[in-house]
Design brief:
This protein has helices at 3-24, 29-32, 45-74, 81-97, 101-123. The chain is mainly α.
Amino acid sequence: MSVLACLEGAVLLWLVHLLLQANLTGASFSYLFSSRDEPPPQPGLVGARAARAFRNYMESFPAFVALDLAFLATNHPAGIWPTLWIAARIVYLPLYLFSVVYVRTAVWLISIVAVVAMLIRLAL
């Protein structure tokens, strides 16, 4: 998978996270289209997980985008690391939603290793 395709996939996955969170939190359409002066309804179990998974994604998404753009700008070979990051993040979402705890943590660790490896590869 090319570096650009990984960037496009990361943005698409961001959109999936965003829509899942909005859909699964239990907010009505009237709330979603309001000025949100009132607090949102309490999400159900899966909705709360979707919100936490989205926040977790947003913790590593900026670092991945910055590194991926640096690879694109410098034409430096990125290797398999961007593909590994996006694959791990795709697998991570359903693992989080269905509370597969130990495997989820291992997949998250793979995504972190991929970001660190991207940084090291870019520096060399």
